[in-house]
What does this fold into?
Amino acid sequence: AQRVTQPEKLLSVFKGAPVELKCNYSYSGSPELFWYVQYSRQRLQLLLRHISRESIKGFTADLNKGETSFHLKKPFAQEEDSAMYYCARSSGNTGKLIFGQGTTLQVKP
Amino acid sequence: NAGVMQNPRHLVRRRGQEARLRCSPMKGHSHVYWYRQLPEEGLKFMVYLQKENIIDESGMPKERFSAEFPKEGPSILRIQQVVRGDSAAYFCASSPARGGGPEETQYFGPGTRLLVL
It folds into this structure.
């Protein structure tokens, strides 16, 4: 079965520190991978997708097919980055998403 | 554009009752996905619908759960004879086309929190 794994439930860093949220996926063809974010009291929203190769709010994520990883990185964390982050992959030709368990990022002042 | 709307936001039911969850997609979106999030878990795909058609229901429990997306009106996720294990957050997402590609982002609603007593 296709899986997405986020090994950390909680990641706590200080403001200005680098952040890396880990995501691994089970190999299956050419996956489409995404990072979604949910800020407090807001709905889930797309942060970035690997196909776009863009940086959003200072976050980047590189698809590493050899390690089957899609880690989310930011060089300097900000307090407003505190949120729940979900890694997801698209499955099959229907576009349904398979989500990881989520990682709570807590950025302390 | 108001975004994806879900109602009710919170729903309390007793065991054996029926729960009806509604999802109004964004204007112009004809594709709807339902996901369920059990406590302490990630979101899990349930069903994918287009107008008047169920395309993929591979994530739906075999019994008691059904979904529809009529030509007019919102998509409905219906749970009959609810049990305590159905307590979860149910999220709906819509997209203008089949989700996954660059122009096919899934936009999520705020979710319905179902509590079964």
